[in-house]
Design the sequence.
């Protein structure tokens, strides 16, 4: 049960970080000259940084196989975000030229997982 609670805390921390970065991005688009065409890239960057944190924390909980645990937890994180976006906007992002961009957060989660296992020693 302790592993589940620590894992849940990791997901909550990553989600809070993602929401904070998204709010900062929204403020930048609203109040500065930040181009709206760059918002998808900004969301991918914020998702990647959050997934790196999640991969790091999750691999610290598991303690081994950092690449796999980090990438898998980041994949679940990305799916949760996409499902939340579908629930809010009633529109699932379609398969387009941006679909491969969602692999960046998964790779970031894997990198965070490697760092988490390496930092444990």
Sequence:
């Amino acid at each position: 049960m302790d592993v589940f609670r620590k894992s849940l805390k990791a997901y909550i921390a990553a989600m809070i970080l993602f929401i904070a970065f998204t709010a900062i991005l929204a403020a930048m688009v609203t109040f500065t000259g930040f181009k709206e065409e760059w918002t998808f890239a900004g969301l991918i960057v914020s998702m990647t940084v959050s997934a790196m944190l999640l991969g790091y924390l999750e691999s610290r909980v598991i303690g081994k196989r950092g690449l796999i645990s980090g990438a898998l937890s980041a994949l679940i994180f990305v799916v949760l975000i996409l499902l939340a976006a579908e629930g809010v906007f009633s529109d699932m992002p379609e398969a387009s030229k941006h679909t491969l961009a969602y692999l960046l957060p998964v790779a970031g989660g894997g990198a965070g997982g490697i760092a988490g296992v390496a930092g444990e020693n």
Q: What stands out?
A: The mean pLDDT is 87. The chain is about 80% helix and 0% strand. Helices lie at 2-31, 39-62, 66-89, 103-120.
